[in-house]
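Supplementary notes for students who missed Thursday's class. We covered one full example, reproduced here. Read the sequence, then the structure, then the short commentary at the end.
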Amino acid sequence: MNISSEIEQFILSVLGSGDEITLSRNELAQYFSVAPSQINYVLATRFTVARGFIVRSKRGGGGGITLVRIAGGEDPISSQLKELGEMHTLPENRARDMVDRLVEASAVTPRERAVILASVSSKALSGCKESGELRLNIYREILIALMRK
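Structure (token representation):
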């Protein structure tokens, strides 16, 4: 077994049947006697949305990593998470279209639609320089919350 596989197996064993863990990139690198970039590589290639994970990184303080297990499958929410993974910003009209697709697929209720759209509206994000990027981050977090087991 190569080092990347060992790191992956270790992280999976720490996660166990839980939905979320927070780890230190530097501590993992030290434990396995590898550079922190090796940990980044494992996270980027083995813990993807397609494989049912979201990785959030914190800068500074030892390189904290939060790993979230999401429900798998090709349901509309996970499909949209994959779609968001390829985007850098999310225009408001595109967000509206995406939420409408979730309603059509019965993945969210009309009331949830209203709450989501209010959260990512131009009005809510007024004054933000990078509102498209912020909208993307907010919408991604909403989808992750909907997918948690």
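Commentary. Residues 3-69 form a domain with the Phenylalanyl-tRNA Synthetase; Chain B, domain 1 fold (CATH 3.30.56.130). Strands lie at 20-24, 53-57, 64-69. If anything here is unclear, bring it to office hours.
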